C-alpha cells in the first residue's frame, strides 16, 4: 500500500557488465521488468553501434517468420494460441534457431514454387480442355451458316476452308484462318469492341463462358474466363488479332480444325489432367504436413526472436569503457529491487565463468527520477484513471489510493438506483470471475478492452450504486417497504384517502412517530405526488454540497503531506493554512448551517423554530458574502432570521478572516523566498554519458556501507520555482491565488452535478416505468399478458441502453471531472513522467496490438 500512497523510491545506477555476461543479464532483467535503461550513445548513429549486426540478424529472422506465417495463413492452417512465453535463447541456441528457420523457409519456398508451377500447368490443361469442348459448337454454327449461303461441302468443305494457325503462312490468301484461346470474362466486352475496330468488322468472333470458376495459381482466388474463336482472312489481319489478344492477356491454345482430331486431343488432355491432379494432391498433403508442424512452433519462434532483438537493442544503449573489456549501462531502478539486480549481475558472471564480476554502482543525480507506482489487477484501473490526467511528480501523493473509494461513491450518488446498480455489479462480477478466460481471448474490440480494463471499477460502481439506491429507497424507480412507515393516518377514513389526491400528512400530528427511519428514506414518499420532487430536490442538493465541501477539504489537507515530504514546511503556514481557513470559514460554515437547520427547525417546535420560520441557507450565505443585513424586521414577522445568537457577528468575523487570508496567499510565499531562502548551491555533477575519459568506480560517500549493504541517497526533484526571478514569483503566486479563490466558489457549485444527475436519473427511470411497463400492467385479460410481455421487453431494452449505459457513462464522466478538477487541483501537480522499464511482456503486448491493428 505504501507504493500506492506515493511512488516508489528510485535510484540511478551504473551497471558494469562483462561483455560475455551482458546478454544473459539483460535477458533476466527483461523478464523481471524492473529496470529502465538510458541511452548512453545518443550521439552515435544507429547503424554504427556495437550490436547492429546482431539486430540485423534478428530482422532477417523476423522476415522469415513473417513469410512463414503468411504461408500458414494462406493455407488456413490454424495457429494454436499459447499464453506461455519461452525465455530468450542463449547465444548458442541462436545459431541453431537461425539455421532451422533457414531450412523451413527454403522448404516452404520450394513447395510453394512447385505448387504454383503445377497449378499453372493444371490451369492451362483445364482451359485447353474447355476450349476443345466449346469450339465444336462454333464450327457447327459455321457449317450451318455456309450451308445457308449455298456451300454444300458439309463438314469436309469447312475443314478445307479452315486451316490452323500453324499452317496459316502456307495457306492461300482466299482461305479462312482462326485463333482460339481463353480471355478473362471481365475483358470480353472491350476485347470484342477492339477486334471490331481493328478489323472493321472483318473478324468473325464466337465466344462461350466457362460455367465453373478456375483457380488463380498465385493467389488461390477464383477467376472466371471465356473461350473464344476468332475467324479472319489474311496474314495482316492475323497479326492484328494476335496483338489485340496479347494486349487483353488472352491465352492461345492449338485447336485442330477437324472434329476427330479435337476428340483425340481432349482424351489426351483429360489423361494428363488426371495424372497432374494426383501429383497436386500429393504436393498439397506434403505442404500441409510441413505447415501444420511449423504452426505449432511459430509462436515460440516469434517470441524468442523478438526477445532476442529487444536484448540487442537494449545492449546498443550501453557504452564500452576505454579498455573495451566492460560494458557500462545507466538505468533507473526501484530501491526495493536493487538486491535482485545485484544478484542478476552476479549470476550472469558465474554462468559464463568470468573471473571479473559484474557489479552495480548507485550514483547521485539532481535529475528528477521517473514515477513508479507498483499496481496489481485491482488497483491498475484506478491508477490508469489518474495517469490519464497526468503522471504524478516523483514521490508526490498519489490520488489513486483515495480514488478507489471516492470515485465509485460519488458515482453511486449520481446513479442512485439499486436495481440498475445490480445490473452494473453483475456485469463487473462476470468480468472479474472470468478474467483469465477473457484475457486469453485477446479481443481486438477497443470498446470491450476499455470495459474489461476497468472491470473492478465497474464492480465497485455497481456496489456503491446499490448502497445509495437503498439509501434513496429507489429500485427501478420503486420503493421497498421493509421497516414499515413512520407515518400513521388516523384522521381520515379509507375512502377519503383513496379518492383524494391532495391530502397532506402533517408531521406535527400526534400520530407521527418522531424518530428517524431505520435505513434510507421512508417509503411513504413514493406516494407523495405533489411534494416528493420538492423534498428530494432539497435533500439531494444539500447532500451534494456537503460531500463536495468535505471532498475539497480533504484534497487541501493532502497538500500538507506533499509540503512535509518535499521539506517545504513554510508552505504549510503560507499556503495550506490560509487555503484551509478560507475554505472552512466560508463553505464549511455553509454546511454547518445546513445541519443546524435540520436539527433546530422541527415540525413540533414552537413557532419561531418551526419549519415555516427556517431561513434559507443560500440567502443567508449570499448576504454574508455581500455584507448585507436582512430586510425583514422582527416586528413584521414572528420568525427569527438568525439561527443562533451572535450569528451576525460570527459571520462578519469569518468574512474578515477569510479576506485577510487572500493577501497572505498573494504575498506570503514570494516575500519569504526573496528575503529568507538562500539560493541553492549549484553543485557540479559529472556527466555519466561521457565515459571515455575514465571511470570513477568508487561510489560517492554515503552510498555503500561497510557491510556491503546499500544506503540510498534518494534524489530529490529540482523545482523550477527555486531559480525564478522575483517578478515571476509574484506573477505565478497571483495566478495560483486567484485560481484557488475563484475555484472554491465554482468547484462548490460544480458538485451540484451530484444532485442534478441523480434527480435526472430518478425521473427518467420513473418515466420509463409509468409510460412503458405500467402500460402492460393495466390489462386484466389474456391480451394483458401479451401486452406485458411486449412492454417488459421494451422497458428492459430502454433500461439497459439509456439508464444503464448512457446514464452510467454520463455519471462516469462527471465523476471523473470531479476528481480531476475539483479534487486533484487542490494538491496534485502531475508533471512527472512514467517509469517505463525494459520488459519483455510490455514489448510483446505492444507488438501484438500493433499487428492486430
Structure characterization notes:
- Strand 10 (319-320) and strand 11 (327-334) form a beta hairpin.
- The protein has 24 helices and twelve strands.
- The strands form three sheets. Strands 1, 2, 10, 11 and 12 form a five-stranded antiparallel sheet that branches.
- The protein is α+β, with helices and mostly antiparallel strands and 853 residues long.
- It has four domains: 2-109 and 285-363, no CATH class; 117-281, Alpha-Beta Plaits, CATH 3.30.70.2750; 378-481 and 752-834, no CATH class; 568-681 and 726-751, no CATH class.
- 27% of the residues are buried.
- Helix 17 runs antiparallel to helix 21.
- The two termini are 36 Å apart.
- The radius of gyration is 43 Å and the shape is extended.
Summarize the structure.
With 853 residues, the chain is an alpha+beta fold. The protein has helices at 2-5, 19-32, 52-74, 91-148, 154-161, 188-199, 235-247, 259-315, 338-351, 380-389, 400-415, 418-433, 435-441, 446-453, 455-472, 494-499, 532-565, 570-600, 617-625, 647-675, 726-750, 753-777, 782-823, 840-852; strands spanning 10-17, 36-38, 162-163, 176-184, 204-209, 214-215, 222-223, 225-232, 251-252, 319-320, 327-334, 359-363.
Topology:
Elements: H1 2-5, E1 10-17, H2 19-32, E2 36-38, H3 52-74, H4 91-148, H5 154-161, E3 162-163, E4 176-184, H6 188-199, E5 204-209, E6 214-215, E7 222-223, E8 225-232, H7 235-247, E9 251-252, H8 259-315, E10 319-320, E11 327-334, H9 338-351, E12 359-363, H10 380-389, H11 400-415, H12 418-433, H13 435-441, H14 446-453, H15 455-472, H16 494-499, H17 532-565, H18 570-600, H19 617-625, H20 647-675, H21 726-750, H22 753-777, H23 782-823, H24 840-852
Parallel strand pairs: 3-4
Antiparallel strand pairs: 1-11, 1-12, 2-11, 4-8, 4-9, 5-8, 6-7, 10-11
Helix pairs in contact: 2-8, 2-9, 3-4, 3-8, 4-8, 6-7, 10-11, 11-15, 11-22, 11-23, 12-15, 12-23, 17-18, 17-21, 17-22, 18-20, 18-21, 20-21, 22-23
Amino acid at each position: 500500500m505504501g507504493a500506492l500512497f506515493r511512488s516508489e523510491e528510485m535510484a540511478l545506477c551504473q551497471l558494469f557488465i562483462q561483455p560475455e555476461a551482458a546478454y544473459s543479464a539483460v535477458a533476466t532483467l527483461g523478464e523481471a521488468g524492473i529496470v529502465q535503461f538510458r541511452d548512453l550513445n545518443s550521439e552515435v548513429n544507429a547503424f554504427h553501434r556495437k550490436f547492429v549486426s546482431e539486430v540485423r540478424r534478428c530482422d532477417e529472422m523476423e522476415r522469415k517468420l513473417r513469410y512463414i506465417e503468411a504461408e500458414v495463413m494462406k493455407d488456413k492452417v490454424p495457429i494454436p494460441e499459447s499464453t506461455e512465453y519461452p525465455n530468450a535463447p542463449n547465444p548458442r541456441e541462436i545459431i541453431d534457431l537461425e539455421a532451422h528457420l533457414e531450412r523451413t523457409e527454403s522448404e516452404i519456398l520450394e513447395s510453394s514454387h512447385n505448387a504454383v508451377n503445377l497449378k499453372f500447368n493444371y490451369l492451362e490443361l483445364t482451359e485447353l480442355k474447355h476450349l476443345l469442348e466449346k469450339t465444336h459448337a462454333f464450327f457447327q454454327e459455321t457449317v450451318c451458316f455456309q450451308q445457308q449461303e449455298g456451300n454444300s461441302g458439309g463438314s469436309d468443305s469447312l475443314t478445307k476452308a479452315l486451316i490452323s494457325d500453324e499452317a496459316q503462312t502456307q495457306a492461300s490468301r482466299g482461305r479462312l484462318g482462326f485463333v482460339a484461346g481463353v480471355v478473362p470474362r471481365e475483358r470480353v466486352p472491350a476485347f470484342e469492341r477492339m477486334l471490331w475496330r481493328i478489323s472493321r468488322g472483318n473478324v468473325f468472333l464466337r465466344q462461350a463462358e466457362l460455367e465453373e470458376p478456375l483457380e488463380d495459381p498465385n493467389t488461390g482466388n477464383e477467376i472466371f474466363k471465356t473461350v473464344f474463336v476468332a475467324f479472319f482472312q489474311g496474314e495482316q489481319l492475323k497479326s492484328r488479332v494476335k496483338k489485340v489478344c496479347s494486349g487483353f492477356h488472352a491465352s492461345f491454345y492449338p485447336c485442330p480444325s477437324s472434329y476427330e482430331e479435337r476428340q483425340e486431343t481432349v482424351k489426351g488432355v483429360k489423361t494428363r489432367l488426371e495424372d497432374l491432379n494426383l501429383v497436386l494432391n500429393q504436393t498439397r498433403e506434403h505442404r500441409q504436413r510441413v505447415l501444420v508442424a511449423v504452426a505449432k512452433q511459430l509462436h515460440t519462434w516469434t517470441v524468442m526472436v523478438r526477445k532476442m532483438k529487444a536484448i540487442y537493442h537494449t545492449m546498443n544503449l550501453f557504452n564500452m569503457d576505454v579498455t573495451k573489456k566492460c560494458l557500462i549501462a545507466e538505468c533507473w531502478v526501484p530501491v526495493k529491487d536493487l538486491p535482485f539486480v545485484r544478484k542478476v549481475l552476479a549470476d550472469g558472471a558465474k554462468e559464463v565463468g568470468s573471473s571479473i564480476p559484474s557489479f552495480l554502482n548507485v550514483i547521485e543525480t539532481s535529475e528528477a527520477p521517473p514515477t513508479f507506482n507498483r499496481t496489481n489487477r485491482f488497483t491498475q484501473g484506478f491508477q490508469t484513471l489518474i495517469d490519464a490526467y497526468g503522471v504524478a511528480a516523483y514521490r508526490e501523493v498519489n490520488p489513486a489510493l483515495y480514488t478507489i473509494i471516492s470515485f465509485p461513491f460519488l458515482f453511486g450518488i449520481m446513479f442512485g438506483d439499486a436495481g440498475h446498480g445490480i445490473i452494473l455489479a453483475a456485469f463487473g462480477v462476470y468480468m472479474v470471475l472470468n478474467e483469465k478466460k477473457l484475457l486469453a481471448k485477446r479481443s481486438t474490440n477497443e470498446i470491450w478492452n476499455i470495459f474489461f480494463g476497468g472491470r473492478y471499477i465497474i464492480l465497485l460502481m455497481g456496489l456503491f450504486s446499490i448502497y445509495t439506491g437503498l439509501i434513496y429507497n429507489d429500485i427501478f424507480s420503486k420503493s421497498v417497504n421493509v421497516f414499515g412507515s413512520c407515518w400513521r393516518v388516523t384522521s381520515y377514513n379509507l375512502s377519503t384517502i383513496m379518492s383524494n389526491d391532495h391530502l397532506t400528512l402533517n408531521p406535527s400530528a400526534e400520530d407521527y412517530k418522531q424518530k428517524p427511519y431505520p435505513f434510507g428514506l421512508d417509503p411513504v414518499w413514493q406516494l407523495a405526488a405533489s411534494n416528493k420532487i420538492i423534498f428530494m430536490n432539497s435533500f439531494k442538493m444539500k447532500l451534494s454540497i456537503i460531500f463536495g465541501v468535505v471532498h475539497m477539504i480533504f484534497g487541501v489537507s493532502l497538500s500538507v503531506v506533499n509540503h512535509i515530504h518535499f521539506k517545504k514546511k513554510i508552505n504549510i503556514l503560507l499556503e495550506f493554512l490560509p487555503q484551509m481557513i478560507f475554505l472552512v470559514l466560508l463553505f464549511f460554515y455553509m454546511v454547518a448551517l445546513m445541519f443546524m437547520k435540520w436539527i433546530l427547525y422541527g415540525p413540533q417546535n414552537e413557532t419561531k423554530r418551526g419549519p415555516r420560520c427556517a431561513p434559507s441557507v443560500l440567502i443567508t450565505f449570499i448576504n454574508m458574502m455581500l455584507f448585507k443585513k436582512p430586510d425583514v424586521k422582527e416586528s413584521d414577522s414572528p420568525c427569527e432570521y438568525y439561527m443562533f445568537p451572535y450569528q451576525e457577528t460570527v459571520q462578519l468575523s469569518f468574512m474578515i478572516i477569510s479576506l485577510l487570508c487572500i493577501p497572505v496567499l498573494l504575498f506570503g510565499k514570494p516575500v519569504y523566498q526573496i528575503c529568507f531562502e538562500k539560493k541553492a548551491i549549484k553543485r557540479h555533477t559529472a556527466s555519466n554519458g561521457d565515459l571515455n575519459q575514465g571511470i570513477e568506480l568508487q561510489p560517492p560517500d554515503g552510498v555503500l556501507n561497510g557491510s556491503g549493504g546499500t544506503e540510498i541517497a534518494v534524489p530529490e526533484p529540482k523545482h523550477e520555482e527555486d531559480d525564478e526571478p522575483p517578478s515571476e514569483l509574484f506573477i505565478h503566486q497571483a495566478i495560483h491565488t486567484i485560481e484557488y479563490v475563484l475555484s472554491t466558489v465554482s468547484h462548490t457549485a460544480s458538485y451540484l452535478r451530484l444532485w442534478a444527475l441523480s434527480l435526472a436519473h430518478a425521473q427518467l427511470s420513473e418515466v420509463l416505468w409509468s409510460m412503458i411497463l405500467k402500460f402492460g400492467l393495466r390489462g386484466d385479460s389474456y391480451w394483458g399478458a401479451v401486452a406485458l410481455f411486449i412492454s417488459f421487453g421494451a422497458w428492459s431494452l430502454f433500461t439497459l441502453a439509456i439508464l444503464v449505459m448512457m446514464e452510467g457513462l454520463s455519471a462516469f464522466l462527471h465523476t471523473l471531472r470531479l476528481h480531476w478538477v475539483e479534487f486533484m487541483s487542490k494538491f496534485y501537480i502531475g508533471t512527472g513522467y512514467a517509469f517505463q522499464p525494459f520488459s519483455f511482456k510490455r514489448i510483446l503486448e505492444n507488438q501484438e496490438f500493433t499487428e492486430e491493428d
